[in-house]
Each structure stands twice: as C-alpha cells, then as structure tokens.
Amino acid sequence: MSNRASIVEELLQEIPQLRPQMYFKTSLTALSHAMEDQVLAGSDCPLVIASFQQARFYRQEAHRYQRIANITQQVYVLSAEGAGFSSCSEFYETIAFEEADALTQEWHLVVLGDQYSACLICRERQPAPTDPRAPGALTLEQTRRFEGIWTLDLQVSQQAAEILLRRILEYRPDLTNKVEQARTQFLQTDLSEICPGLGGSDPFAQRLVTYVQAGQYKLLKAYKAISAQERRERLVNSITSAIRRSLNPSEIFKIAVQELGQALQVCRCLIYRCKAEDITIQIQHEYLTQAVSSLVGQIWPLQDNPLFQRVLLQPETIAIDDTLTEGSPYEADLKGLEALIGSWKIHSWLMAPLIYQDRLLGIIELHHCQPEPHIWSENDKALVEAIAAQLSVAIIQAEAYANLEELNRQLAALDRTRSNLIAITGHELRTPLSTIQVCLESLSSEPDMPSELRQVMLSSALADAERMRKLVQDFLILSRLESGRIEWNLEALSLWECAELALSSVKAKHVDKSLPQIAIQIPPDTPLVRADGEWLVEVLAKLLDNACKFTPAAGEITISVARAAKKQLQVTVADTGRGIEPNRLEAVFDRFYQEEGALRRTTGGTGLGLAICRQIIAGLGGQIWADSEGKDKGSQFHFLLPLAENRQGTRSQAGRSRKTARSSRKTRRSQPDNLVLE
Ligand code: ADP
Fold first, then answer.
1. Could you tell me the pTM of the whole model?
2. How far is the CA of 588 from the centre of ligand 1 (A)?
3. Which of 52-56, 296-300, 588-592 is predicted with the least confidence, judged by mean pLDDT?
4. Hey, whose CA ends up nearest to atom 4 of ligand 1?
5. Domain range for residue 327?
6. Are residues 642 and 551 in the same domain?
7. Distances from the Cα of 207 to the Cα of 25, 37, 153, angstroms
C-alpha cells in the first residue's frame, strides 16, 4: 500500500485555523521528551502514537517506549520499514510504513489521556540544495528545521490522533478492533465541532518553547558565523600556502581566482594586476560558472571605467547589488558603464583593490550575471578583502624576489669584474709593467747609454704604458656596462652618419698605416635606428678597427645594412681578412679572448673590444654575432638595432643626434651614397 499524503497537510486541511510554526530539531526533541515524561510520571493510561522518520531515530527512543508500554496498552510506534524495524505487536504496536510515504519527512507524537493531551505534528523543511549561503553547519542535526503544530489543545490532539489512526489501519488492518477501542476511549468528542479558539497550550509551556527556540536560533547563527569564519580561514590558508609554494604571482592568481569564485559561488571572478596609470589591461585569470561568457583575453577598460577611477581615489571595496536599478550611490558611475554591463551581463558587481602602502597593485572583481540581483553580504566583502590583502603581499614578495635576483646578478657581475681585475693585474698588466720597469732601470743605471738605445728604451716604455692605459680604460668601460649603470641616451639616428664618424676615428688611429679599402654601403632611404649615438659609434669603430687589424692592405671592408624582422635593422661589418674558425665564432665575444694569445699578439688590442660591443648592443636592445667561412675566408660581424618608430630615415634627419649633427652639417651635400676610402 502506498500513501504519500502528509499528516501535517491533512491536519491543516481539517482545521484551517491552525497556524504552523517553525521548530528546530532540538526544540522538538525537548518537547517530545517532555510529553513522554508526562506519560511516564502520570497515573493515566493514555493513547500514545509516535511516528519517527527513520528507524534509527526510533532506536534512540525505543527504551522509553518499552517503559511507556508498561503503563498503557494503547501505544503505536510508526517508522519507515527496514533496518530492523517491521510491523509487529510485541510490547506495543509497531507500524512500518513505506519509503514512499510522506511520513518519512514527518515527526509526530500524540498523547491523549484523561487528564492530559498534547500533540506535535511536524514536517521537515529541506534546506535549499543550491543555497550558496548554506554553511557546512546546516548538515548538523541541531540545525534541522521542522514546520508544524505543537499544542496541548485536546481537540487538535484528538484530530491528529484520528488522522494517525486512519493511517495506521491502512498499514495494519489487523488492528481494527484495538484502534476502535482507542477511538471509543479517547476520541469521544465530536471532531466535526472543534471550536476555533485553538492553541490551548499552557502559556508557561508556550513561553518555554519560545525560549528554547530563541536559544536554538542563536546557536544556529553562531554556527553560521563559525562556518563562515572557517570557510574564510580555509580559503585564506589555501592561498597562503599557494604563496608559500610559489613566488610567481600568475600561479597564485590562478589558484586564488578559482578558490574565491567557488567559495562565493559567483558567476565570474577576475583577478588582475594593474597600476593606477594603466589605460586598459588584458584579462588572464578568471573563474566562471557555466553559461557565463568568458573575459579571458579581453581588453578591460580602466582609465575609462568610473568604478576603477573611484577605487583609485578611495581605495575601498565597491559592492553594487544591482547595476540596473536607479538610485544607487554609484548610479552616475554605472551610466558610463552601460555597454560593459550589457555585453557581459554584470548584474551585481564587486570590486576590491589590491593595495600595498597606498600603491595599487591589482583588482579583484566579482560578477553575478543572473536575472536577479545578488546582495553582497558583509561576510562576502570581508572574505574578498582578506584575499586581497594576501595577494598584495604575494605581489610585493614576488617583486622583492625579482629585485633580489637582479641585485644578485649585479653582484655576480661585480664579482666577476673583481676577479678579472685580479687576473689582469696578474697577467695583462704585469708584462708591460715589467718592460717599463726594465727600461727605466736601464736608463737610470746607465747614464752613458748611447742615444739610439736610450731612444729605443723610451719608446718601448711609452708603448707599454699606452697599452696599459688602453687596457684599464676598456676594462673600466666593460665594468660599467656589465654592472648596468649606464644611462642610455636613446634617439633616432642615421647609421650612415654614425658609420662615417666611426670611420674617421679609425682612420685617425691608423694614420701611419695603409688600410684596406673601406666602403660604407648605406642607402640614403635607410630608416633611422633608435640608439645612443656615442655608444653606437663606439661599436662601429671597434668592429672597423678589428677588420683593419685582421685584413691585409689589399683586402676590402664594407659596412652595409638590411631590413630585419620585428622592426629592426641589421648592420654588417664584413672584411676579406684572416677569418675566424667556426668553433671560435662565439668565443671571440669572451673577455680577453685573443686567438694568438696576449703575448704573441702583433696587432695590439686588449681582447675586450668584442665583449664591450656585445654589452653595448644588448643595452640598446639588439643582438650581435659573427660569421665566417673559416681561416683566411674573411669575417662578418652583424648586429641588430631597433628602428626609430614611425620615422623613415634620411641622412638629414640624423642631424638630431648630438655628435653626428656636426659631421652631417659638414658632409651632407658632398658625400656619395657609397663612401670609399683607401
Ligand atoms: P682585440 O683587442 O684582441 O681585438 P676583440 O675582443 O676586439 O679584442 O677581439 C677578440 C678576438 O677576436 C681578436 O683578438 C681576434 O682573434 C678575433 N677577431 C675580432 N675581429 C676579427 C676579425 N675581423 N677577423 C678575424 N678575427 C677577429
């Protein structure tokens, strides 16, 4: 037999004047125990009908019913069948109802005696399964809630007993006689004439119930607060441990956005880094629920976003429950955001800044996109603010780490420099110093030295002093470049003019020597490059100087340019000289690399020139490398430089350059495209 009807509903239909109330489970337990105790303590032999939702609830009370059965014959206990509970007539009548019966959701106790009557007829209220605010505590027994009637009123108790007895007979027709006997003994009042003045409970008992209920309500609130606090702590902990595991803000944001979005059950959660002066940012980290469109990859406005501007002025959380209703304090701001709100269906909006010492580091945004607005609670705001504080620390920590790494890099460079200095003092400086010393000693100890020899001595001392000076000078330049202490004066420059300056400096240096033919092949329409003129001329001069050193007078040297990808210009200094072995093409850029070794050097030089060139070109945002087919097959040194933005180069434009200006004034009219010198 299947009976799904609710006893609560039946009772309310039969006595429409009844007003059901909400009871916590603890209150019902107290009330039902009080009713059972009344039976156990009294001298009546009452009718007792108890209905438990499940056998496990019944089992907790079974011993009391055995004691009650010693007092009265008319005891009926109902429960869902199974788990050791079945219909039988042992100490008292047990009635096992089906799982499908509405009784599985209800809790009833009716006591009808000569001097005493009470009834408790209640149905459990299920918590909304998707209620985002349902804390973990709702699963606790204490927080279960029931809706129904508790009263000492005789007529209501009789009516409830009658409905229950009818249900009992549907399951246990064999009890017809016993039930009839109960009806005669306890339900003689004409039930159709129940007076409307209900609620005949003792006022004292009513008040007691109210107190129990109020106490329970406070308890529930405390559970909720504890649970919210616990949720907050769990979330903050998981983000803190992510911060501990990684120093990469991107990884931390990835975790935080998911955790926060899930914890607050929002439609969309965004976390992004930004600065006060940013115009827009690109969204990278997002949590989304289904059916909400993603913002990842989208350009998100900041400068034109009045809410963002408001956060900048007053760095506090902004929580807007309903972006569509007029009259909110943010109404004027939201007017300017209508398009954004419409496209991304932002119905409720929360924006919390990530701040560290008054500096804006980023933003957390939460969006609700359902048709109904969402009311942001104080708890929501507190949670987002706690996460924002953690993320700010993570960003600062990551920045500090990056700075530390940079400092370490600089320290390592300084340390290398220091070691090199020692190496130079040991090997490079000692040789010329000894020569100078020997020459000077001889000159002073041999006053009668022939004047030719004296001249030779003086010349070698001077030559070695000059070599030492160059070495120290190059070494100091390299040290400055390596430690990153150079301030680059970047401007739009004409390569032709820089090449021309470099060439005159090389020519001046080798005035007493016949040089190979040098051609500057830079067309007049070559775009300008963005570089520091002084340093660029230095690189070209060093490359030309090397080419001259390692190319016989009969050879050729060219400086040419070509457009390269990524808005860069490739400059090449090529020669037909002694070339470089393929396996030495990288090594030539090492400090103090010299193919023949310092002592056997005939060409001069410090071995620092190419190392300096590499540092300069890297500092200007380019790259430098060497090519050669091998020994005696010539070499090509290429480097890339960024083009000056939106400017097509002409030689006259390079007049902007400080140094090149002078030369361009002198040479603009007279120089051909290809400058060929001997
Ligand atoms: P150096 O003062 O010795 O020229 P660099 O750093 O300028 O120092 O060059 C390092 C070494 O690279 C040179 O000693 C030489 O062996 C090799 N090298 C540089 N330029 C050329 C070139 N154009 N042709 C052949 N070898 C070169």
1. 0.45
2. 6
3. 588-592
4. 605
5. 226-400
6. yes
7. 17, 19, 16
